[in-house]
Amino acid sequence: MSTDTNQEAREQLIDLAAEFYDQFEGGEIPSMSLPTRTKSNIEYDEEKGVWVYGDRTSRRSANSVRGAQKLLKAVYTIEFLADQLEEDRSSTLRELYYLSESWDNDNAQFNDQDESNQLIEDLEIVSEVTREDFHMRPEESGAKVMGPLHIREQTNRGERDIHCQLDVGQGGYQIPNNPDTIEFLDNDADFVLCVETGGMRDRLVENGFDADYDALIVHLGGQPARATRRLIRRLHDELELPVTVFADGDPWSYRIYGSVAYGSIKSAHLSEYLATPEAKYIGIQPADIVEYDLPTDPLSDSDINALESELSDPRFQTDYWEEQIELQLEIGKKAEQQSLAARGLDFVTDTYLPERLEAMGVL
């Protein structure tokens, strides 16, 4: 990351701490206003196609012991992040939790990692600086890309030029914590295929799907990390590549698609940065379960509740999703991506994906 970006992020943090100081100096009780981060304060922006926070706010104030402790922890964290940026260092969210154990005020130490994670999210919202620009990293997500894309990555050891097909092994190119450090040099891909499971991703690579169809295969690794979603958004916006999502045929996988396409409640303050509303869902569809007579498992009670919840979710209130979800509730079954192997190991790359992609207008 450039020195200018570091300095800008640092100044935003220091400005936030200065607000607390000004409140003290003016005889006010220090406080910090944040959007209320509950489902009832999430609005679906029809124009942008993403989840955003509504107008309801809550105030963190030092007028109680608990509130004062929260602001104290915020100040200590701001100081740590400002120093980290000054030194051009980085740390993980897990390390921040443990680092607080060394702070000289016991009241500033975090009780658990959920508390430190939430504070970082709070600071993102009020400072309008992402945690990536704070140089805060999650634990490794392991998400990778395979396909005809030539990039330049900025690292702490200098620039690296990498072709995500020719210069990598079977495992592919690992997505960095901050994909904005990547420069796209050249691209021969026709579309992006986001794949939920590692087993299916490996099948596609082994069968040469990326080379045969000029596809950028992005492994989501279950619920995709922010870095993965950010890279997908950039591939769509900057390279004008269609984005498709290939996941298991169950309600939890539909939510994985939803997080790629529309954003999530937890990261609603970053929906325009992370979500790709134009992303299309390939499958597994409930209709595929019927058409191909796939091996299945019965829907559990939690599956049924999740499907019924999705019927009232703005992200899934389209004719397509209503038809598919109602069909799934009717047949009472779910299926994994790899159930397609019941028709042979090459069926997914020779028949299923090409036919679906053609029907969707991608091929």
Automatic annotation (TrEMBL):
Cofactor: Mg(2+)
Keywords recorded for this protein, A-Z: ATP-binding, DNA-binding, Isomerase, Magnesium, Metal-binding, Nucleotide-binding, Topoisomerase
Occurrences of domain Type II DNA topoisomerase VI subunit A all-beta (ranges): 139-188
GO CC aspect terms: chromosome
Biological process according to GO: DNA replication; DNA topological change
Molecular functions (GO terms): ATP binding; DNA binding; DNA topoisomerase type II (double strand cut, ATP-hydrolyzing) activity; magnesium ion binding
List of residues binding Mg(2+): 196, 248
PROSITE patterns in alphabetical order: TOPO_IIB
Active site, per annotation: 98 (o-(5'-phospho-dna)-tyrosine intermediate)
The enzyme's E.C. designation: 5.6.2.2
Span of domain Spo11/DNA topoisomerase VI subunit A N-terminal: 70-135
Reaction equation(s) it catalyzes: ATP-dependent breakage, passage and rejoining of double-stranded DNA
Pfam families: TOP6A-Spo11_Toprim (PF21180), Topo_VI_alpha (PF20768), TP6A_N (PF04406)
Topoisomerase 6 subunit A/Spo11 TOPRIM domain boundaries: 191-357
SUPFAM superfamilies, sorted: DNA topoisomerase IV, alpha subunit (SSF56726)
Subunit structure: Homodimer. Heterotetramer of two Top6A and two Top6B chains.
Protein's job: Relaxes both positive and negative superturns and exhibits a strong decatenase activity.
Annotated protein name in UniProt: Type 2 DNA topoisomerase 6 subunit A
Organism name: Halostagnicola larsenii XH-48
